[in-house]
Amino acid sequence: MSPLTFPELIFGTTITRSQQETFDLSYAIGRALELPRIFFLEGNLGAGKTVFAKGLICGLGQPDPDDIPSPSFTLINEYLLRFKVFHVDLYRLETVQDLQSLDLEEILAEPAVIIVEWAQKLGNKELEDVILVKIEDLGGDNRKIEIQPLRTGRGSQSGNAPLEL
Q: Could you tell me if 112 and 84 are in contact, meaning their C-beta atoms sit under 8 angstroms apart?
């Protein structure tokens, strides 16, 4: 039997008991990343998607998490670290035109680490090497984080309707 390699090592379910534990989990994933990947982050408002994204970005070389603002209003933040990194937040998008105005087709085609919060709004986008991160609030600071390879053509897995690129 061959040893597991990244990303197989990260797949599975983890319970974190604080924001720091969520950050540390994603930080370790960022440090272990050997190739650009796309991360789709799904979870309810306040579940910890941005904390997870910040840990991942710091693991890729950003020294200070306080220098990683949420892209809730800018929609896309870009970083030049060990890899080019795009942090995308689709929460505020309501129409297909909103989604198309972001030029996500170009971003998703780049050899970069792409972190997409509220990724379920993308719908049936065909992509390779996508890692789905589902974060569930268990109450208090406890989170259940499921990390799995994404099967393309999946449609929306959460409550928000997909917008489709």
A: yes
